[in-house]
Amino acid sequence: MNDPLTKAERTRQFIIETTAPIFNKKGYAGTSMADLTEATKLTKGSFYGNFENKEQVALAVFDFNLGKVSKAIQLRVQQAGTFRDKLGVYAQAYRDFVRTAHLEGGCPILNTAIDADDTNPLLKEKAAKAVLKWKKNVMDLIQGGIQAGEFKPDIDQHQMALSMIALIEGGMMISQVTNNTGNLDKVLKTVELLIDMMKA
């Protein structure tokens, strides 16, 4: 079977996949071109032949890292039976992510939002769009649960979705800075309590 990707596309993909953990651990500002060339064993010329600058690599890497997380969560959501279980996937997934190599360096949304807050508007915009999409996905599940009679009809969906996201991202941050995954587990129990509070 022939590879549908061109040599240039394969090189771009190789650069993205190889540098993804570095950007996620060190952040945009903390990652140097030397880090990238050392990891990929490519010259600066090869880099600039595929990407205009370090920022372009970082933007592609964010999409790649976010895509890995989103696909893993969506697969679990599709497999879950009830809407309560579908919402619970977010807590379970992030609990699992920190214990595997799936999220080397932590959550790409959290890392990028903190790293690019005032220094990189393009990365900040990508992180903001990711949060808003996440909020919409959670609200859609809550709405589905209301329609299915699983959840109370008078839930403030915006508040619930934002609270869940804030708890998960806050739990990830606390877990990272304290180097203690048990702290994340405690916060994620609160996410599960929030979901249970919505039950009809």
Low-confidence stretches: none
Tell me the name of the CATH class of the domain at 61-197: Mainly Alpha
Instruction: Report how far the terminal alpha carbons are from each other.
Output: 53 Å
Report the sheet-strand fraction: under 5%
Mean pLDDT: 86
Report Rg: 19 Å
Shape: elongated
Secondary-structure arrangement, i.e. CATH architecture of the domain at 61-197: Orthogonal Bundle
Biggest sheet, in brief? none
Number of helices: 9
CATH homologous superfamily placement of the domain at 61-197: Tetracycline Repressor, domain 2
Helix percentage range: over 70%
Assign the structural class, choosing from mainly alpha, mainly beta, alpha/beta, alpha+beta, or little secondary structure: mainly alpha
Description of the molecule:
It is a single chain. This protein is elongated. It is mostly helical. It is 77% helix and 0% strand. The longest helix is centred in the last third of the chain and has 27 residues, at 121-147. Helix 1 (7-30) crosses helix 6 (108-115).
Summarize the structure.
The chain has helices at about 5-30, 35-40, 45-50, 55-80, 85-95, 110-115, 120-145, 155-180, 180-195. With about 200 residues, the chain is mainly alpha-helical. The mean pLDDT is about 85.
Overview features:
Tetracycline Repressor, domain 2; 200 residues; mainly alpha; single chain
List the helices and strands and how they pair.
Blueprint: H1 7-30, H2 33-40, H3 44-50, H4 54-79, H5 83-97, H6 108-115, H7 121-147, H8 157-178, H9 181-197
Helix pairs in contact: 1-2, 1-4, 1-6, 4-5, 4-7, 5-7, 5-9, 6-7, 7-8, 8-9
